[in-house]
Write a structure and sequence with these properties.
Length: about 375
């Protein structure tokens, strides 16, 4: 009976450990997927004004950016909230004016779901719209309706008689619809930066500079150098800082998942506590015999503690091996599919060996504490009676 309980305890620990490895690996897969989506539209470094919305990239500090050999490319970007109309439908959007350097990103073509990511065709300027925004406006690249973009004229007073006279207007035809992160899909419209400047009324202004760093260069070192060169008036953000809230949230979620599953393993480990306690009670006569033969209390205690640790270790080892095998099967063969239409067809999985080590450490610690309790608390009471 005790052997069956011990087996059930080991199986429970194995299942809990497997779940911990699999769930963390699936979460790593989604985290990697999200980072990949964001990296399509994000630069390694972004320069923004510390105060205000716009700035003119002039002076020695900015010349340092273009002249630094560690910098692969620098693109000028102009962003602002605008008002859109298309075929009688209206929406507020984020206008993102970009230059030709930005368009040289090879990953942009991978994000297109309809049309192409082209802002100029045959000398005519066009717009590229996020998928969610296109759905909201009923926009398609094959339709002949133009996309009208409005923005308040700088310094103009709103006329109650003719409000449209106080708005700047640009008309563009959509050339492409793109997918990406939720913010890009639902809010963004990409246009040539010259059109954005014409609409917003700034000749050489930008809202940010997006910097791509040469492969193999230290992004952190370049970031510190640019912060020193530009001074306190500008912020230089890396990929993490550009989406700090999202990355922090993902980290907190991962820690919460780990703690919840570890708590389940703690509950399962209580079976080990029960089986060891029953084993100690059942073997009370043998314990007395060992004591009569000269075995010390510490030796007897270590025998039962080792029994509990072996149950935990075998369960943990089987769980880790099974979890890693299941993850690699899913990673390479995509056995479990994602329901509905998503960016990927099957659940993404990435085995992070740091997570595996953390899992081993966590389960080992729980097993060590839980299995030591019967040997250190129950057994001494039984020995004192004898």
């Amino acid at each position: 009976m005790i052997n069956i309980i011990s087996l059930i305890s080991a199986v429970g620990i194995a299942i809990g450990t497997t779940a911990l490895v699999v769930v963390l690996s699936v979460y790593n897969g989604f985290e990697s997927l999200v980072k990949g989506i964001y990296s399509t539209y994000e630069a390694d470094l972004v320069v923004e004004p510390a105060r205000g919305k716009f700035f003119v990239p002039e002076g020695d500090g900015f010349a340092r950016i273009w002249g630094d050999g560690r910098v692969a490319s620098v693109s000028e970007v102009l962003e602002e909230n605008v008002f859109l109309t298309y075929a009688g439908r209206q929406s507020v959007a984020v206008l993102k004016g970009v230059d030709s350097v930005y368009l040289s990103n090879p990953h942009l073509a991978e994000s297109v779901v309809e049309g192409e990511f082209a802002l100029t065709q045959l000398g005519v300027d066009h717009a590229v719209v996020g998928r969610g925004m296109a759905r909201k406006l009923g926009l398609r690249t094959r339709f002949l309706d133009p996309l009208e973009i409005y923005y308040p004229l700088r310094g103009a007073e709103v006329s109650m008689v003719n409000p449209m006279a106080s708005l700047s207007k640009e008309i563009l035809f959509p050339s492409g619809i793109i997918k990406g992160d939720q913010d890009t899909e639902n809010n963004f419209v990409f246009v040539p930066i010259e059109k954005a400047r014409s609409l917003l009324g700034g000749e050489a202004e930008v809202s940010s500079l997006e910097i791509i760093v040469q492969e193999g260069e230290d992004v952190g070192a370049l970031q510190r150098d640019l912060e020193q060169a530009l001074g306190d008036g500008y912020l230089v953000k890396n990929r993490y800082q550009q989406n700090e809230t999202i990355y922090k949230m993902m980290t907190y979620e991962k820690v919460a998942i780990y703690m919840i599953l570890l708590f389940i393993i703690i509950v399962v480990s209580c079976n080990v506590f029960g089986s060891l306690t029953m084993l100690i009670i059942e073997k009370s006569d043998d314990i007395q015999t060992l004591g009569s033969m000269g075995a010390s209390h510490s030796l007897i205690r270590n025998v039962f503690a080792l029994e509990g640790w072996l149950i935990t270790f075998l369960g943990m080892l089987c769980g880790v091996v099974l979890g890693v095998i299941l993850c690699y099967i899913q990673q390479y063969f995509g056995v479990i599919k994602m329901p509905g239409s998503f960016i990927v067809t099957s659940y993404p999985v990435v085995v992070n060996w740091v997570d595996v080590v953390i899992t081993i450490v966590g389960v080992s610690f729980v097993g060590f504490v839980i299995t030591a309790l019967p040997a250190w608390k129950v057994l001494p009471k039984l020995l004192s009676k004898n």
